[in-house]
Design a protein that fits this description.
By secondary structure, the chain is an alpha+beta fold. The protein is built from two helices and four strands, in the order E-H-E-E-H-E. This is NGG1p interacting factor NIF3.
Length: 103
Amino acid sequence: MYKLAFFVPESHLETVKAAVFATGAGRIGDYDSCCWQSLGQGQFRPLAGSQPFLGRQGEVERVAEYRVELVCADDLIRPAISALRAAHPYEEPAYDVWQLAEL
């Protein structure tokens, strides 16, 4: 089992979650579409060669973003990440993946 966390602007929150959930990620027992989300502020500076969805090259950008966390079965983590990357508006979406211990 894995835990996937990603950051997404509010404008694409539901679209990206739906794409990830469509892979089967976010299932806990008899429940699906399970996640935790919290609003925060992301910061980045697009460098030369980038094509930012928000902001301008060379300038620091701050944007309201959600951190979304969910669990994902071993065989679904790669499809979930692929779906996340395909649905996300950023050319380089930020995400973390942790393998969970079985107790």
